[in-house]
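Troubleshooting: if your tokenizer reports a length mismatch, compare your output against this known-good record of 389 residues.
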Amino acid sequence: MRALHTSDWHVGKRIGRYDRAEEYREVIAEVVELASAEQVDIVLHSGDLFDRPVPPIEAMEGAFSGLVALTDGGRRPVVVIAGNHDSAGFFEALAPFLRGQNIHLVGEIKRPDGGGVLDLETPRGRAVVSCFPFLREGRAFHVWDAVEEHYKQYADRLRAISEAYSEHAGRLAGTDAVQFLVAHFLVGGAKVHGHGAPRGERALHMGEAYAATSEAIPPGPQYVALGHIHAPQPVPGAKVPAEYAGSLLELDFGEAGEAKRIVIVDVEPGLPATVRSVSLSGGRRLVRATGEWQEVLVRDDVRDSFLDLTVVTAGPDPGLADRAREEFDYLVHVRADYPRTESEASARFGKPLDELYAIYYQDQEGVAAPAELLAAFREVMEEVGYATS
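Known-good structure output:
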């Protein structure tokens, strides 16, 4: 049997003022073409289908039309679990309507014998798929009250749930079905690459409180499809083949230059899976560029990429933002980098909040804050009842 593992689509995510709907259509179509070319029997999506719990209509159309296409006319089952960016309730509400098209949405963490483990027919036999959506720290789920004491610590909860799924899936699979675990959590030691810039992973769900040990990967499944980490990589310490497929596009500048992929998994009942990566080319690249103005202008990677630009200057350059916007079609951020003095910092004392924000913006970005941004900031101040002197 051959599976395709994909993850962390984050459909609906923008970058700066730019909508990325066309890029999503392009790269999802690429995944559909690869599923056909590789003749896969099942598709496993390990969470964060959307970027927001309530996605825009256009995002829903793009994502669900892609999932329908991945079924190859209903021939191939597609399993999608909810990640930390998705709404579990939204998934559960839609699940009955999509099941008839062989799309299996699992939003809530369920008992193994109550929808947590799926027994699916594929063109090349049965696949038993354990579905482990994102678990928010401290959440108590009433359906497992009998084993409540096992879940006092987050990592212990993850391990206990995975083990319960593995035991049930093993009994269900017998000797003639393959076993998969599809999950959305962080295993300690996984590498979150980056360049000092924000990344697409939600920082709130990336701390130690949300980290599992490798013991959360049970020995029963023949392949474990994990989501949550956007940098493609094997799962550290796993005793069975397990991979973070990574995100579909470079989502933030912390992912700039990161190769994106799908994972192709070949497996037979009772044997470990073999995995290989297939690169994705869809979507616009992200570039972080630093240098003097003339140095940046001659670079060949800044014209057709989303650009995070730092220009080295001798001092403040009030016209830099306008000049950069005129020069680069896909400019997202621009800032001037120049030495700051102590007198600049001391000049802030006693200033009203909106002026302090303008100074902060100048310090961070190296350019003056746009007038419309300052106007919006003052509206927020008025809305919360902040009185300026």
